[in-house]
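One example given next:
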Amino acid sequence: MFLQTASCVAGWREFMTILSANKLRFALYLLFQIVISIVIGAIIGIGFCIGCCLCCASCLLVIPYIGTVILLPLFVFTRAYSLYYLQQFSPRMDVFRVETEPVQSA
């Protein structure tokens, strides 16, 4: 929808055509998302437990700004993973594509 400035209905229509052709791949994607969520939760939990033993270092995670900065790589990974996954189906879905204009010589 973002790349083609399409409506919500047109975006869903495009997604459903891709989904109907790749049902197994999307099922595996959803299962992998569950695994990723469990692993990230375990990483945060272990980090919190280790930080608790280190002079209340895990208390920094409770402070909104500092906690977000510390966990930012995990947040970016979870949001960007789906975009990277979708770009394999069509070059039109590559959100990270940088279009450069050709340099004109004088």
